[in-house]
Amino acid sequence: MTNGKSWKPWALLSPSLSAVFLLLVIPVCFVVVYSFWLRAPSGGDIPAFQWGNYAKFFADFFYPSLLIRTIRVALETVVLCLVMGYVPAYFFYRTESRFKPVLMILIMLPFWISFIIRTLSWINILGDSGLINHLLLKAGLISSPFSMLYNEGAVLMGLLQYLLPFMILNIYVSLDGIDKSLTEAATSLGCTEWQAFREVTLPLSLPGVSAGCLLVFVLTCGTYLPPMILGGPGNDMIANLIFKRIIGTLDWPFGSAISTLLLGLLGVIVYTYNRYLGINQIFKSLR
């Protein structure tokens, strides 16, 4: 009877585990295996087990520099999303307005629009003939269009539009799980509103902050559309390099090696987070 009960959860989980294994684990294994293959002069791929693709990545500093730039841009995006996301999340937590559901829908509205369309829309806003330059020219503040596209600032704008809702929702879910009576108790004991926030609300919301930061960082490292559409030649990230190697030159072994290195780096980051903060904090923030 005990053995039957122990197998029942696995039987119920088997469809989901099978889907994860077939759609995630096996494709990743193929990528890892492909990273050891050789690229033939004729353009074909030769099955092999060698480290040439990884050595090629580290032999030219151009490739590691893209990885360093990716990490830097990801950290910048995390900081901007955190600074811009905590305030609206806290507002949703504190407000009693009847319009709160409408405001929450507005936060999730970007998810209903294609990521490509959202990214392309910045061209009509930041371009030489875009909305901002049009308004500045009409107001007489500038005499010629101001260049705002094809630089790192435009890339960050595209990333913020994509990732800010993830940060807001993660922080809000964590805040929403905090009993408001704790803040009321702190103020009744002599704390000011700022002290109650600093000593009670902020520490209790850190699981959501950590989950949002980790999610934004990982998604930024893996995205390629904002740098490709809004960035210039010097604003490529590691995902753009993977895209060009696999789609542009059909160099699957080298592209797979870069993908494996990126996957390993993100795995180390997640492991470090789990080691010092605990991955269970993410699930705690989502309860």
How far apart the termini lie comes to 32 Å
Which geometry do the CA atoms define? globular
Poorly predicted tracts of residues? 282-287
Architecture of one domain in CATH? Orthogonal Bundle
SSE topology string: HEEHHHHHHHHHHHH
Write the layout of secondary structure elements.
Elements: H1 2-34, E1 38-39, E2 45-46, H2 52-59, H3 62-94, H4 100-108, H5 115-126, H6 131-138, H7 152-176, H8 180-188, H9 193-222, H10 225-230, H11 238-248, H12 252-276, H13 280-285
Helix pairs in contact: 1-12, 2-12, 3-7, 3-9, 5-7, 7-9, 8-9, 9-12, 11-12
Quickly describe the structure.
The protein has 287 residues and is mainly alpha-helical. The protein has a domain at 61-116 and 152-285: MetI-like fold (Orthogonal Bundle), CATH 1.10.3720.10.
Please describe what this structure looks like.
The chain has 287 residues and is mainly α. The chain has a domain at 61-116 and 152-285: Orthogonal Bundle (MetI-like fold), CATH 1.10.3720.10. The protein is 75% helix and 1% strand. It is built from 13 helices and 2 strands, in the order αββαααααααααααα. The chain has helices at 2-34, 52-59, 62-94, 100-108, 115-126, 131-138, 152-176, 180-188, 193-222, 225-230, 238-248, 252-276, 280-285; strands spanning 38-39, 45-46. The chain has a two-stranded antiparallel ribbon with strand order 1-2. β1 (38-39) and β2 (45-46) form a beta hairpin. α5 (115-126) crosses α7 (152-176) and α8 runs antiparallel to α9 (193-222). The longest helix is centred in the N-terminal third of the chain and has 33 residues, at 2-34.
